[in-house]
Write a structure and sequence with these properties.
Mean pLDDT: 84
Low-confidence stretches: 1-15, 354-376
Distance between the termini: 55 Å
Radius of gyration: 23 Å
Number of domains: 2
Order of helices and strands: HHHHHHEHEHHEEEHHHHHHHHHE
Structural class: alpha+beta
Helix content: 40-55%
Number of helices: 18
Strand order of the largest sheet: 1-4-5-3
Shape: elongated
Number of strands: 6
Length: 382
Protein backbone atom coordinates (compact mmCIF):
# COMPACT_ATOMS: atom_id res chain seq x y z
CA UNK A 1 0.00 0.00 0.00
CA UNK A 2 1.38 3.42 -0.97
CA UNK A 3 1.05 6.37 1.40
CA UNK A 4 -0.10 9.74 0.07
CA UNK A 5 2.54 12.40 -0.49
CA UNK A 6 1.36 14.17 2.68
CA UNK A 7 1.72 11.04 4.82
CA UNK A 8 5.08 10.06 3.26
CA UNK A 9 6.52 13.30 4.62
CA UNK A 10 9.55 12.69 6.82
CA UNK A 11 9.16 12.03 10.53
CA UNK A 12 11.48 14.89 11.51
CA UNK A 13 9.20 17.46 9.88
CA UNK A 14 6.13 15.85 11.45
CA UNK A 15 7.54 16.59 14.88
CA UNK A 16 8.30 20.20 13.97
CA UNK A 17 4.96 21.31 12.52
CA UNK A 18 2.70 22.84 15.15
CA UNK A 19 -1.07 22.67 14.41
CA UNK A 20 -1.97 25.38 16.94
CA UNK A 21 0.07 27.89 14.97
CA UNK A 22 -1.84 27.16 11.80
CA UNK A 23 -5.13 27.77 13.62
CA UNK A 24 -3.89 31.10 14.97
CA UNK A 25 -2.54 32.17 11.57
CA UNK A 26 -5.78 31.25 9.78
CA UNK A 27 -7.94 33.06 12.31
CA UNK A 28 -5.62 36.08 12.24
CA UNK A 29 -6.45 36.46 8.55
CA UNK A 30 -10.18 36.02 9.13
CA UNK A 31 -10.44 32.84 7.07
CA UNK A 32 -12.59 29.79 7.60
CA UNK A 33 -11.08 26.34 7.01
CA UNK A 34 -13.03 26.12 3.77
CA UNK A 35 -11.76 29.49 2.55
CA UNK A 36 -8.17 28.60 3.39
CA UNK A 37 -8.52 25.23 1.66
CA UNK A 38 -9.76 26.93 -1.50
CA UNK A 39 -6.83 29.35 -1.52
CA UNK A 40 -4.17 26.66 -1.11
CA UNK A 41 -5.83 24.21 -3.51
CA UNK A 42 -6.75 21.61 -0.92
CA UNK A 43 -9.91 20.18 0.61
CA UNK A 44 -11.51 21.49 3.78
CA UNK A 45 -10.91 18.06 5.33
CA UNK A 46 -7.19 18.41 4.66
CA UNK A 47 -7.03 21.76 6.48
CA UNK A 48 -9.07 20.27 9.31
CA UNK A 49 -6.56 17.41 9.56
CA UNK A 50 -3.66 19.86 9.60
CA UNK A 51 -5.18 21.78 12.51
CA UNK A 52 -6.13 18.65 14.45
CA UNK A 53 -2.63 17.23 14.08
CA UNK A 54 -3.85 14.15 12.22
CA UNK A 55 -1.88 15.12 9.12
CA UNK A 56 1.16 17.33 8.53
CA UNK A 57 1.56 19.43 5.41
CA UNK A 58 4.31 18.61 2.92
CA UNK A 59 7.01 21.18 2.32
CA UNK A 60 5.16 22.32 -0.79
CA UNK A 61 1.88 22.62 1.12
CA UNK A 62 3.62 24.52 3.91
CA UNK A 63 5.01 26.97 1.40
CA UNK A 64 1.49 27.61 0.09
CA UNK A 65 0.15 28.07 3.63
CA UNK A 66 2.95 30.50 4.39
CA UNK A 67 2.28 32.49 1.22
CA UNK A 68 -1.50 32.64 1.60
CA UNK A 69 -1.50 33.43 5.33
CA UNK A 70 1.43 35.84 5.30
CA UNK A 71 3.46 34.13 8.01
CA UNK A 72 7.05 32.86 7.62
CA UNK A 73 7.36 29.09 7.31
CA UNK A 74 9.37 29.10 10.56
CA UNK A 75 6.30 30.44 12.38
CA UNK A 76 4.57 27.07 11.97
CA UNK A 77 7.47 25.24 13.64
CA UNK A 78 7.46 26.99 17.02
CA UNK A 79 6.15 26.04 20.44
CA UNK A 80 2.43 25.74 21.10
CA UNK A 81 0.46 28.96 20.83
CA UNK A 82 -2.43 29.63 23.16
CA UNK A 83 -5.64 29.52 21.12
CA UNK A 84 -7.70 32.03 23.09
CA UNK A 85 -11.37 31.27 23.52
CA UNK A 86 -14.06 33.97 23.80
CA UNK A 87 -14.73 33.20 27.46
CA UNK A 88 -11.26 34.41 28.56
CA UNK A 89 -11.75 37.89 27.09
CA UNK A 90 -14.17 40.73 27.71
CA UNK A 91 -15.48 41.96 24.37
CA UNK A 92 -17.69 44.94 23.71
CA UNK A 93 -20.55 44.64 21.21
CA UNK A 94 -20.39 40.86 20.85
CA UNK A 95 -23.77 40.91 19.11
CA UNK A 96 -22.49 43.29 16.44
CA UNK A 97 -19.37 41.39 15.46
CA UNK A 98 -19.01 38.30 13.34
CA UNK A 99 -17.33 35.18 14.69
CA UNK A 100 -14.49 35.74 12.22
CA UNK A 101 -13.92 39.27 13.53
CA UNK A 102 -13.90 38.00 17.10
CA UNK A 103 -11.42 35.26 16.18
CA UNK A 104 -9.19 37.77 14.36
CA UNK A 105 -9.01 39.78 17.57
CA UNK A 106 -8.35 36.73 19.74
CA UNK A 107 -5.61 35.49 17.43
CA UNK A 108 -3.99 38.94 17.63
CA UNK A 109 -4.05 38.34 21.37
CA UNK A 110 -2.29 34.99 20.90
CA UNK A 111 0.50 36.70 18.97
CA UNK A 112 0.68 39.51 21.52
CA UNK A 113 1.27 36.89 24.22
CA UNK A 114 4.46 35.65 22.58
CA UNK A 115 5.61 39.24 21.90
CA UNK A 116 4.86 40.18 25.52
CA UNK A 117 6.74 37.12 26.78
CA UNK A 118 9.71 38.10 24.65
CA UNK A 119 9.67 41.64 26.11
CA UNK A 120 9.43 40.24 29.65
CA UNK A 121 12.49 38.09 29.00
CA UNK A 122 14.52 41.16 28.07
CA UNK A 123 13.11 43.89 30.31
CA UNK A 124 11.90 44.37 33.87
CA UNK A 125 8.45 45.96 33.61
CA UNK A 126 6.05 47.24 36.30
CA UNK A 127 4.20 44.45 38.10
CA UNK A 128 0.37 44.36 38.02
CA UNK A 129 -1.13 46.65 40.66
CA UNK A 130 -4.88 46.23 40.17
CA UNK A 131 -7.24 45.53 43.06
CA UNK A 132 -9.75 42.71 42.98
CA UNK A 133 -13.20 44.15 43.77
CA UNK A 134 -15.93 41.99 45.21
CA UNK A 135 -18.62 40.93 42.71
CA UNK A 136 -21.63 43.24 42.73
CA UNK A 137 -19.78 46.38 43.84
CA UNK A 138 -21.28 49.59 42.47
CA UNK A 139 -19.18 50.55 39.40
CA UNK A 140 -18.99 54.22 40.38
CA UNK A 141 -17.86 53.29 43.89
CA UNK A 142 -15.23 50.99 42.39
CA UNK A 143 -13.98 53.78 40.10
CA UNK A 144 -13.60 56.18 43.03
CA UNK A 145 -11.96 53.51 45.19
CA UNK A 146 -9.41 52.86 42.44
CA UNK A 147 -8.73 56.58 41.99
CA UNK A 148 -8.17 56.86 45.73
CA UNK A 149 -5.89 53.82 45.84
CA UNK A 150 -3.80 55.18 42.96
CA UNK A 151 -3.76 58.71 44.41
CA UNK A 152 -5.37 60.32 41.36
CA UNK A 153 -7.65 62.86 43.04
CA UNK A 154 -10.66 64.09 41.07
CA UNK A 155 -9.07 65.88 38.15
CA UNK A 156 -8.66 64.84 34.53
CA UNK A 157 -6.15 62.12 33.69
CA UNK A 158 -3.34 63.18 31.39
CA UNK A 159 -2.56 59.90 29.63
CA UNK A 160 -4.57 56.79 30.36
CA UNK A 161 -2.32 54.39 28.45
CA UNK A 162 0.68 55.55 30.49
CA UNK A 163 -1.30 55.13 33.68
CA UNK A 164 -2.36 51.58 32.81
CA UNK A 165 1.20 50.62 31.89
CA UNK A 166 2.58 52.09 35.11
CA UNK A 167 0.15 49.80 36.95
CA UNK A 168 1.37 46.73 35.05
CA UNK A 169 -1.28 46.49 32.33
CA UNK A 170 0.06 45.31 28.95
CA UNK A 171 -1.45 47.59 26.29
CA UNK A 172 -1.40 46.65 22.59
CA UNK A 173 -3.13 47.99 19.52
CA UNK A 174 -5.78 45.99 17.71
CA UNK A 175 -5.22 46.55 14.01
CA UNK A 176 -8.38 44.99 12.62
CA UNK A 177 -10.39 46.48 9.78
CA UNK A 178 -13.63 46.20 11.73
CA UNK A 179 -15.08 49.01 13.82
CA UNK A 180 -17.39 46.43 15.43
CA UNK A 181 -14.41 45.24 17.48
CA UNK A 182 -13.97 48.22 19.80
CA UNK A 183 -11.46 46.74 22.21
CA UNK A 184 -11.02 43.78 24.51
CA UNK A 185 -9.20 42.84 27.67
CA UNK A 186 -8.17 39.70 29.50
CA UNK A 187 -6.19 38.29 32.38
CA UNK A 188 -3.62 35.74 31.27
CA UNK A 189 -0.94 34.15 33.44
CA UNK A 190 -1.67 36.63 36.21
CA UNK A 191 -1.12 39.58 33.87
CA UNK A 192 -3.75 42.05 32.61
CA UNK A 193 -3.92 42.85 28.89
CA UNK A 194 -5.84 45.55 27.00
CA UNK A 195 -6.20 45.75 23.21
CA UNK A 196 -7.37 49.02 21.64
CA UNK A 197 -8.75 49.50 18.12
CA UNK A 198 -6.53 51.80 16.05
CA UNK A 199 -9.46 53.12 14.01
CA UNK A 200 -11.18 54.95 16.87
CA UNK A 201 -10.81 58.63 17.73
CA UNK A 202 -8.45 59.45 20.59
CA UNK A 203 -11.41 60.31 22.82
CA UNK A 204 -13.23 57.06 22.08
CA UNK A 205 -10.06 55.04 22.53
CA UNK A 206 -9.50 56.57 25.98
CA UNK A 207 -13.04 55.61 26.96
CA UNK A 208 -12.44 52.11 25.60
CA UNK A 209 -9.28 51.85 27.72
CA UNK A 210 -11.20 52.91 30.84
CA UNK A 211 -14.01 50.49 29.92
CA UNK A 212 -11.52 47.61 29.68
CA UNK A 213 -9.93 48.65 32.97
CA UNK A 214 -13.41 48.30 34.42
CA UNK A 215 -13.64 44.74 33.11
CA UNK A 216 -10.21 43.92 34.55
CA UNK A 217 -11.12 45.01 38.07
CA UNK A 218 -14.84 44.17 38.09
CA UNK A 219 -14.95 40.98 36.00
CA UNK A 220 -11.53 39.62 36.67
CA UNK A 221 -11.67 36.35 34.79
CA UNK A 222 -13.72 37.40 31.79
CA UNK A 223 -16.57 35.00 32.51
CA UNK A 224 -19.07 37.68 33.51
CA UNK A 225 -20.07 38.77 30.02
CA UNK A 226 -23.23 40.16 28.55
CA UNK A 227 -25.29 43.33 28.75
CA UNK A 228 -24.97 43.72 32.52
CA UNK A 229 -21.18 43.45 32.45
CA UNK A 230 -20.99 45.95 29.59
CA UNK A 231 -23.22 48.39 31.43
CA UNK A 232 -21.09 48.10 34.57
CA UNK A 233 -17.87 48.66 32.59
CA UNK A 234 -19.39 51.73 30.92
CA UNK A 235 -20.47 53.16 34.27
CA UNK A 236 -17.01 52.50 35.67
CA UNK A 237 -15.32 54.19 32.69
CA UNK A 238 -17.50 57.30 32.94
CA UNK A 239 -16.88 57.65 36.67
CA UNK A 240 -13.15 56.93 36.37
CA UNK A 241 -12.61 59.49 33.61
CA UNK A 242 -15.15 62.05 34.91
CA UNK A 243 -15.32 61.69 38.72
CA UNK A 244 -18.47 63.05 40.27
CA UNK A 245 -16.78 65.55 42.59
CA UNK A 246 -14.54 67.00 39.90
CA UNK A 247 -17.33 67.36 37.37
CA UNK A 248 -19.73 68.95 39.87
CA UNK A 249 -17.04 71.44 40.91
CA UNK A 250 -16.65 72.63 37.33
CA UNK A 251 -20.27 72.30 36.18
CA UNK A 252 -21.38 75.07 33.77
CA UNK A 253 -24.62 77.00 34.28
CA UNK A 254 -25.76 76.34 30.72
CA UNK A 255 -24.74 73.32 28.67
CA UNK A 256 -24.27 73.84 24.94
CA UNK A 257 -22.10 72.05 22.39
CA UNK A 258 -19.42 74.82 22.46
CA UNK A 259 -19.36 74.49 26.28
CA UNK A 260 -18.97 70.71 25.96
CA UNK A 261 -16.12 71.14 23.47
CA UNK A 262 -14.31 73.36 25.95
CA UNK A 263 -15.01 71.04 28.89
CA UNK A 264 -13.90 67.87 27.15
CA UNK A 265 -10.29 69.09 27.19
CA UNK A 266 -10.37 68.89 30.97
CA UNK A 267 -11.50 65.27 31.02
CA UNK A 268 -10.22 63.83 27.75
CA UNK A 269 -13.52 62.38 26.61
CA UNK A 270 -15.89 62.78 23.66
CA UNK A 271 -18.56 65.46 23.69
CA UNK A 272 -21.20 62.70 23.61
CA UNK A 273 -19.72 60.96 26.68
CA UNK A 274 -19.48 64.25 28.55
CA UNK A 275 -23.06 65.17 27.68
CA UNK A 276 -24.26 61.78 28.95
CA UNK A 277 -22.25 62.14 32.17
CA UNK A 278 -23.62 65.61 32.91
CA UNK A 279 -27.16 64.31 32.48
CA UNK A 280 -26.43 61.24 34.60
CA UNK A 281 -25.25 63.52 37.41
CA UNK A 282 -28.49 65.53 37.19
CA UNK A 283 -26.85 68.63 35.75
CA UNK A 284 -29.06 68.78 32.64
CA UNK A 285 -32.71 68.09 31.98
CA UNK A 286 -33.95 65.33 29.73
CA UNK A 287 -34.90 67.96 27.14
CA UNK A 288 -31.39 69.49 27.09
CA UNK A 289 -29.80 66.05 26.93
CA UNK A 290 -31.97 64.93 24.00
CA UNK A 291 -31.51 68.24 22.14
CA UNK A 292 -27.74 67.98 22.39
CA UNK A 293 -27.81 64.32 21.31
CA UNK A 294 -29.81 65.25 18.21
CA UNK A 295 -27.45 68.11 17.38
CA UNK A 296 -24.36 65.92 17.88
CA UNK A 297 -25.79 63.41 15.41
CA UNK A 298 -26.55 66.13 12.87
CA UNK A 299 -23.00 67.43 13.05
CA UNK A 300 -21.48 63.96 12.75
CA UNK A 301 -20.01 64.01 16.25
CA UNK A 302 -20.99 60.40 16.96
CA UNK A 303 -18.09 59.07 14.94
CA UNK A 304 -15.80 62.13 14.73
CA UNK A 305 -14.89 64.81 17.25
CA UNK A 306 -14.80 68.62 17.26
CA UNK A 307 -11.27 69.83 18.06
CA UNK A 308 -9.96 66.25 18.21
CA UNK A 309 -7.24 65.26 20.64
CA UNK A 310 -4.05 63.44 19.59
CA UNK A 311 -3.93 59.71 20.22
CA UNK A 312 -2.18 58.45 23.31
CA UNK A 313 1.06 56.55 22.99
CA UNK A 314 2.77 53.81 24.96
CA UNK A 315 5.69 54.48 27.30
CA UNK A 316 6.59 50.80 27.49
CA UNK A 317 6.71 50.14 23.75
CA UNK A 318 8.53 53.41 23.06
CA UNK A 319 11.17 52.71 25.70
CA UNK A 320 11.51 49.04 24.76
CA UNK A 321 12.07 49.86 21.10
CA UNK A 322 14.42 52.75 21.94
CA UNK A 323 16.49 50.57 24.29
CA UNK A 324 16.71 47.84 21.69
CA UNK A 325 17.78 50.31 19.02
CA UNK A 326 20.62 51.41 21.29
CA UNK A 327 21.66 47.74 21.34
CA UNK A 328 21.36 47.67 17.52
CA UNK A 329 18.30 45.45 17.71
CA UNK A 330 15.57 46.61 15.36
CA UNK A 331 11.99 45.52 14.76
CA UNK A 332 13.14 43.16 12.03
CA UNK A 333 15.34 41.28 14.50
CA UNK A 334 12.48 41.03 17.02
CA UNK A 335 10.26 39.68 14.24
CA UNK A 336 12.94 37.20 13.19
CA UNK A 337 13.32 35.86 16.73
CA UNK A 338 9.54 35.44 16.99
CA UNK A 339 9.26 33.93 13.47
CA UNK A 340 6.94 36.74 12.38
CA UNK A 341 6.95 39.36 9.66
CA UNK A 342 7.67 42.91 10.86
CA UNK A 343 4.10 43.84 9.88
CA UNK A 344 2.75 41.72 12.77
CA UNK A 345 4.91 43.64 15.27
CA UNK A 346 3.74 46.89 13.72
CA UNK A 347 0.09 45.86 13.99
CA UNK A 348 0.48 45.31 17.74
CA UNK A 349 2.28 48.62 18.29
CA UNK A 350 0.71 50.85 15.64
CA UNK A 351 -0.45 54.14 17.09
CA UNK A 352 1.03 53.30 20.48
CA UNK A 353 4.77 53.50 19.87
CA UNK A 354 5.17 55.98 17.04
CA UNK A 355 4.81 59.17 19.08
CA UNK A 356 8.02 61.02 19.90
CA UNK A 357 9.15 60.44 23.49
CA UNK A 358 9.32 64.22 23.95
CA UNK A 359 5.54 64.28 23.68
CA UNK A 360 4.70 62.49 26.92
CA UNK A 361 2.17 65.19 27.83
CA UNK A 362 0.41 64.54 24.56
CA UNK A 363 -2.83 66.32 25.37
CA UNK A 364 -2.67 70.10 25.00
CA UNK A 365 -5.08 71.72 27.41
CA UNK A 366 -5.70 68.54 29.37
CA UNK A 367 -4.48 69.10 32.90
CA UNK A 368 -3.03 66.18 34.75
CA UNK A 369 -4.24 64.67 37.97
CA UNK A 370 -2.31 65.10 41.20
CA UNK A 371 0.01 63.50 41.93
CA UNK A 372 1.44 62.88 38.46
CA UNK A 373 1.89 59.34 37.22
CA UNK A 374 5.62 58.86 37.57
CA UNK A 375 7.64 57.68 34.63
CA UNK A 376 9.26 54.33 35.15
CA UNK A 377 12.59 53.10 33.90
CA UNK A 378 13.14 49.86 32.04
CA UNK A 379 16.04 47.62 32.85
CA UNK A 380 17.39 45.67 29.89
CA UNK A 381 18.08 42.12 31.01
CA UNK A 382 21.37 41.05 29.46
Amino acid sequence: MFLSAEKRHNTHWQHMFNPSRLTVARQRRGLTKRQLASQIGATEKTVQNYESGEMNPSEESLARLSSVLGFPEAFFEGDNLEILSPDVASFRSLKKMKASQRDMALSAGSIALIFSKWIDQHFDLPKPDLPRFEPGIDPEAAAMALRNEWGLGERGLRNLVHLLEAKGVKVFSLDIDAVEVDAFSMWYGGQPFVFLNTQKTAEHRRFDAAHELGHLVLHRHGYNQGADAEKEANEFAAAFLMPRGGVLAKAPRFVTIPVLVKMKKEWGVSVAALNYRLHKLGLTSEWVNRSICIELSKQGYRTSEPEPMPHESSQVLQKVLAALRSERVGRSEIARQLSLHVSEIDKLTFGLSLTDMSGLSAMPGLRSSQPEVKEFGLRLVK
